[in-house]
């Protein structure tokens, strides 16, 4: 009897943990609005011609500094980073702290929720590599 009573409790706890994890994910629609501050330099489409920053299309899962049509800083080329949600979060929080000497003239996004929203937007609208 006691064992069967514990199973639903364990199941409820596990489901609650999954729900909490999903709830803490970013909001792509809010991220699209926040991307306005990035759009002066970056595009989420393959075509970023005329912009000072590289395209962010397919950025999640892509090694840093790998697009052939963009001149990356030596620091970013040497970084060894692959753009995961975690590495993007750290980089967006403090670009110079994560890759000292990168050329991106941006001090970072201090708000963790805004970074999460931006990353959700990139994952949804910039897509993932095929």
From TrEMBL:
InterPro entries: Cyt_c-like_dom (IPR009056), Cyt_c-like_dom_sf (IPR036909), Cyt_c_1A/1B (IPR002327)
Domain Cytochrome c positions: 26-126
Signal peptide: 1-25
Taxonomic source organism: Methylopila capsulata
Protein name: Cytochrome c
Pfam families: Cytochrom_C
Entry keywords, A to Z: Electron transport, Heme, Iron, Metal-binding, Signal, Transport
SUPFAM superfamilies: Cytochrome c
């Amino acid at each position: 009897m006691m064992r069967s009573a514990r199973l639903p409790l364990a199941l409820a706890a596990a489901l609650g943990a999954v729900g909490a994890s999903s709830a803490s994910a970013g909001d792509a629609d809010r991220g699209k609005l926040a991307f306005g501050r990035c759009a002066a330099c970056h595009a989420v489409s393959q075509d970023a011609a005329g912009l000072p920053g590289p395209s962010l299309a397919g950025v999640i899962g892509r090694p840093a500094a790998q697009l052939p049509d963009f001149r990356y800083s030596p620091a970013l080329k040497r970084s060894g980073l692959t753009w995961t949600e975690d590495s993007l979060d750290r980089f967006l929080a403090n670009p110079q702290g994560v890759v000292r000497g990168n050329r991106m003239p941006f001090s970072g996004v201090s708000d963790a929720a805004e970074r999460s929203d931006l990353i959700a937007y990139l994952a949804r609208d910039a897509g993932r590599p095929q």
